[in-house]
């Protein structure tokens, strides 16, 4: 019987929990991964606008988890949107933390139609905007905007998985990441 590795995810969204479990299972095949989602406040608007607000939301979720739960690792993902010079896009920030280290990563951008981004700026959440545009229900707990806009060639989970996979690098090579010279 393998030893358990406890992961707390700062969300009860099954897409986020599944992405975290997939990444930790790949990196730690010798462990039994116990990945639990919990309600953790982001302390940012439900639809973060801008990179800073989005990153802060993920960091706040991890900080809450560390304060209230015992685990080997704490993970949070926060989706946001921004109007860049080249057009609007959605993306996510991920934070992974343990007793010794914290890593912050970011997903790639998904270009958004201007009309959908405008709805976000006016206070709507991306999941609701996508549900209205594509006549779906609760898409944020499935493929998300990414799945809808890429015809399922990518999904919300695949994007989180990639960002989390990359954010694990400092945990795999801590000595190298702590060097300054």
Would you give an account of this structure?
By secondary structure, this protein is α/β, with parallel strands linked by helices. The chain has a domain of 122 residues: Maf protein (Alpha-Beta Complex). Strands 1, 2, 3, 4, 5 and 6 form a six-stranded mixed beta sheet that branches. The protein is globular, with a radius of gyration of 16 Å. The mean pLDDT is 94.
Radius of gyration: 16 Å
Unreliable spans are none
Structure annotation, total helices: 8
- Which CATH architecture of the domain at 4-108 and 157-173 would you pick? Alpha-Beta Complex
**Fraction in beta strands:** 15-25%
The termini sit apart by 42 Å
Query: Which fold name corresponds to the CATH topology of the domain at 4-108 and 157-173?
Result: Maf protein
Helix content: 40-55%
Helix/strand order, N-terminal first: EHEHEEEEHHHHHH
Largest sheet, described in full?
6 strands, mixed
Let me know the average pLDDT.
Answer: 94
The CATH class name of the domain at 4-108 and 157-173 reads: Alpha Beta
Shape: globular
Alpha-beta classification: alpha/beta
Number of strand elements: 6
Structure keywords:
alpha/beta; Maf protein; 8 helices
Structure summarized in a few sentences:
The protein has helices at residues 14-27, 51-68, 114-121, 126-134, 144-149, 156-167, 169-172, 174-178; strands spanning 4-9, 32-37, 73-84, 87-97, 102-106, 110-111. It has 181 residues and is α/β, with parallel strands linked by helices.
List the helices and strands and how they pair.
Blueprint: E1 4-9, H1 14-27, E2 32-37, H2 51-68, E3 73-84, E4 87-97, E5 102-106, E6 110-111, H3 114-121, H4 126-134, H5 144-149, H6 156-167, H7 169-172, H8 174-178
Parallel strand pairs: 1-2, 1-3
Antiparallel strand pairs: 3-4, 4-5, 4-6
